[in-house]
Write the structure tokens for this entry.
Amino acid sequence: MTQLTMAKALNEGLRRAMADDDKVLVMGEDIGRLGGVFRITDGLQAEFGAQRIVDTPLAESGIMGTAVGLAYRGYRPVVEIQFDGFVYPAFDQIVSNVAKLHYRSQGAVKMPITIRIPWAGGVGAAEHHSESPEAYFVHTSGLRVVAVSNPQDAYTVLRQAIACDDPVVFFEPKRLYHTKGEVDLDTDLADAAPMGLARVARPGKDVTLITYGAQVSTAMDAATAAEDEGIDIEVVDLRSLSPIDYKAVTASVRKTGRVVVTHEAAREAGLGAEIIASVTERCFYHLETPPVRVTGWDIPYPPAKLEKHHVPDLDRILDAVDRVLDRPNSMSEVEL
């Protein structure tokens, strides 16, 4: 086991995937000599050459269109979108071509494209640099969508995504790039947990707290704080947002009978709404109280000095836990 930051784990995942398969190449803005704005591709162009670590023009639609053509020719392109809010110029290519060509061709054409998106806020950046667009892609049939929360998953799930014959939208939480954790660089993908499975990040018996990405760290802090009041929170890290591992989710909910879902994206038609609807359908008779969402507000991403009021924090999550436990002094989201 090696201590790595998430950024370095992603770098090692790309390096291993490229070493294992010469059909893997990486494309994006400033990813070559610069190594990317977050240095995720640092050193890879020197190792694999400019034909496989490709600096592209500032044209996300052109990058995605090129990736589609490469996938047609049997390559496994990995596309880096420099920031989450920059993905929208490529949105038409992703939802109209990448997501549909396998179905449209009755299986004759595969689109093994991995779309890496540095994602969400908490780093003091402006709008278009701190957005959470995951619901758009989860809603699009034909795409797999994953979100990692720790260095080991960053390394393993990225390799799994690149090896997958389906297109994968791979969300990387920017504010966790410099967090460290143990990584087994010798992980055999055949032995690793499939990227479509959720994991119980912390077992508990009183409340199920469902989340993903950077919010997993906040959820874990909330669970630790709740211990002081005798509340035992089970934290479920979804890992995969499409498909969602409802077997793991419902097993937790049937045990605790209470559900809180938290994500940084806006509340209206966000992923939390779909999770709660699906959990209610599957676990209605096990629920002791109505499920609760803790999300970002329904506004464009705020200026950096205000983002602490936008991103769900420990206090808002603990208040939601109080609400599902019907504890006194809890407030509704409207009151908050």
Q: What stands out?
A: The CA atoms of residues 14 and 159 lie 7 Å apart. The radius of gyration is 20 Å.
